[in-house]
Design goal:
single chain; mainly alpha; 51% helix; 0% strand
Length: 85
């Protein structure tokens, strides 16, 4: 019923994970740089309702992470059988 056990090599970190991690870091760095430059003056987003202001600051790193993960190519696993790729 079962054939020989399949041994898998340690897979490399996918490009999507690397890109999303770098995007998250750079996005947060951008937010912190802007806040440092304006001395955390939230008048930049004062046109938003109060509840939305607290959501606006952490939104940028999340969007950059999503975009970086979406755009990055998938890393193929050549050590897997064809039906599992």
């Amino acid at each position: 019923m079962h054939g020989e056990p399949i041994s898998y090599s340690k897979p490399p970190v996918e490009r999507k994970v690397t890109a999303a991690t770098a995007g998250s870091y750079l996005g947060l760095l951008a937010v912190l740089t802007v806040l440092q430059a304006v001395n955390a003056d939230l008048d930049l987003i004062s046109f938003l309702p109060d509840w939305a202001e607290s959501l606006a600051v952490p939104l940028l790193p999340g969007l950059i992470t999503y975009a970086a993960g979406y755009v990055a190519k998938h890393t193929a696993r050549h050590d897997l059988p064809l039906d599992q790729r």
